[in-house]
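Re: the request from the purification team.
They wanted to know what the chain is likely to look like in 3D before they choose a buffer screen. I agreed to run a prediction and write the result into the notebook, where they can find it.
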Amino acid sequence: MLRDYDEPDCAVAKALAIFGDRWTLLIVREAFFGTRRFADFEARLGISKNVLAKRLGHLVEHGILARVEAGRYGARQEYELTSRGKDLTAVITALRQWGDRWIFGEGNEPLVVVDRATGKPIERLRIRRADGSEVPARDLEMRPGPGTRS
């Protein structure tokens, strides 16, 4: 049974209301790879036109993607990541790194992301203190924030 994840005091639940299906995140992933045209999303993902149109509209509605005019010889639109969409870099990277580690295994990564400036693979994302040291999961504590309504 599907459940509505729109809980009032949970940012994870609110985000799942936007990204709660595989197609939506895969479209965002493709946008990070530089895909901009409807036909290219369709071809790269193997997604049906009606599902793609619905998901693209959903991402535009939530400010993750923007429709931009791209036609030199008539009306044609493309999709580009907005600032809100680009802010998903860490989310997409964390999911990819988790999959590389726990699904493919070290040394079997299907994609390596490198820093263009150095040509070296980026480090695994970690939660860090202000001084740069890593915060172990056991040292994390969840407390009500200023937006708590209950």
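For the purification team: The CA atoms of residues 93 and 125 lie 8 Å apart.
Please add any questions underneath this entry.
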